[in-house]
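Propose amino acids for all 356 sites.
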C-alpha cells in the first residue's frame, strides 16, 4: 500500500479515536488546548503527545515540533512546522515554513509560503486535498496537491523536492526538482530544471527548460520558446516545439510531431536531434549552423517532410519523405518514394531523392 494512503488511514483511525470526527472538538476532554469559536493564536510550541483542537474560526499555531493540530473548519495556520501532524480540514489552510511533519489540508485552497531565500518548504509532506494548492519556495520535501489546479513556484535553493499535482491543470515556475502533473493540461513555466512528468493531457514548456520532459498521452508543445538542452519525450499525440537546438533531443513518439525551427536557439546555432517516431512528422526549417553541432532529423515510419533544409542530416526512414527546398546538408530518404522539389545543393543518396 502506498505510504500516503497508509498515513491517511492512520490519521482517520486516530481522529476517530479522539472523537474529533464524530463530535465537536471543543467539547472533548482529550484536547490539550481548544480554540474559542472566534479563533485565536496558540503560541506555546506543540510537542509529542499533545492535541490542539481548533474550531470554526481562523486558528493559528506558531510552532509545531510534534503532536497533532486538528484545525477543523476555518482558515487555519501553522507558522513554523518542524514535526507532528496538522489536520487542517475544510478551509484555505496555510503553513508559512514547513521543515518536517505532515500537513493534511482537506477541501480548500491550501498553501505553503511565501517565498523565503532559505526555502518555505524545506522538508516534510504536504497533502493539499481537493482545491487549488500552492507551494512557493520549495527546496525539499514532498507536495501532494490532489485534485485541483496546483502550483509550485520559486524554488529557493539548489535542492530538489517532489511535486505531485494530481488531477487538474498544474503548473510550475522557477522550479528545481521532480514535477508529476497527473491527468490534466500541465505546464513547466519560466525556468525549469529537473524531471517533468505531465501525464495525460496537453502538457507544455515555456522558456529555459533543462532536464527531461515526459509529456505522456496528449498533444504536448512549447510556448514561444523551444528546447536547447535536455530531452522532450512527447509520447502518443501530435507533439510540437517551436525550436530545437544544441544538445536537446526530441522524441515525439506516435503521432504527427513537428518542430518549427531545427537548429535555432536565439540565433541559428545548430544542433538538436529530432526523432519523430511513427507518424507523418514535419520540420519547418533546418537552418544554417553557427555552432559546432549539426542538426539531425530522424523521421521514423511515416511520410515525413521538411519545408527548407540548409544544413544537417535528414533520415526519413520508412515512408514517402519529402524536402520542399534544399540548399545544403544530407538527405537520406530511406525506404519509400522520397523527393526534393527544389534542389540547389547538398548531398542525396539517389537520383530519386535529389533532382539534378
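Proposal:
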Amino acid at each position: 500500500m502506498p505510504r500516503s494512503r497508509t498515513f491517511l488511514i492512520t490519521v482517520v483511525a486516530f481522529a476517530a479515536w479522539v472523537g474529533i470526527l464524530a463530535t465537536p472538538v471543543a467539547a472533548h476532554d482529550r484536547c490539550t488546548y481548544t480554540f474559542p469559536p472566534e479563533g485565536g493564536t496558540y503560541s506555546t510550541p506543540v510537542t509529542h503527545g499533545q492535541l490542539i483542537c481548533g474550531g470554526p474560526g481562523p486558528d493559528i499555531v506558531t510552532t509545531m515540533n510534534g503532536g497533532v493540530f486538528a484545525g477543523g473548519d476555518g482558515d487555519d495556520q501553522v507558522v513554523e512546522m518542524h514535526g507532528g501532524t496538522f489536520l487542517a480540514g475544510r478551509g484555505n489552510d496555510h503553513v508559512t515554513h514547513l521543515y518536517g511533519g505532515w500537513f493534511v489540508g482537506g477541501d480548500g485552497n491550501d498553501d505553503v509560503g511565501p517565498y523565503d531565500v532559505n526555502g518555505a518548504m524545506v522538508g516534510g509532506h504536504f497533502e493539499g486535498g481537493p482545491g487549488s494548492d500552492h507551494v512557493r519556495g520549495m527546496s525539499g520535501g514532498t507536495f501532494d496537491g490532489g485534485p485541483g489546479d496546483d502550483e509550485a513556484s520559486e524554488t529557493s535553493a539548489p535542492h530538489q523536492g517532489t511535486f505531485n499535482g494530481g488531477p487538474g491543470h498544474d503548473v510550475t515556475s522557477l522550479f528545481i526538482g521532480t514535477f508529476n502533473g497527473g491527468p490534466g493540461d500541465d505546464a513547466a513555466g519560466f525556468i525549469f530544471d529537473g524531471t517533468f512528468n505531465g501525464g495525460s493531457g496537453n502538457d507544455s514548456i515555456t522558456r529555459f527548460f533543462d532536464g527531461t520532459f515526459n509529456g505522456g498521452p496528449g498533444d504536448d508543445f512549447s510556448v514561444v520558446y523551444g528546447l536547447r538542452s535536455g530531452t522532450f519525450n512527447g509520447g502518443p499525440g501530435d507533439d510540437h516545439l517551436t525550436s530545437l537546438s544544441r544538445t536537446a533531443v526530441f522524441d515525439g513518439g506516435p503521432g504527427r510531431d513537428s518542430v518549427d525551427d531545427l537548429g535555432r536557439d536565439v540565433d541559428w546555432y545548430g544542433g538538436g536531434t529530432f526523432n519523430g517516431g511513427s507518424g507523418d512528422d514535419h520540420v519547418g526549417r533546418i537552418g544554417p549552423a553557427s555552432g559546432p553541432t549539426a542538426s539531425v532529423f530522424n523521421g521514423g515510419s511515416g511520410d515525413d517532410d521538411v519545408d527548407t533544409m540548409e544544413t544537417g542530416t535528414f533520415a526519413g526512414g520508412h515512408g514517402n519523405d519529402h524536402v520542399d527546398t534544399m540548399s545544403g546538408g544530407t538527405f537520406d530518404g530511406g525506404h519509400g518514394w522520397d523527393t526534393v522539389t527544389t534542389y540547389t545543393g547538398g548531398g542525396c543518396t539517389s537520383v530519386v531523392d535529389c533532382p539534378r
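Confidence is low (pLDDT under 50) at residues 1-27. The helical segments are 3-18.
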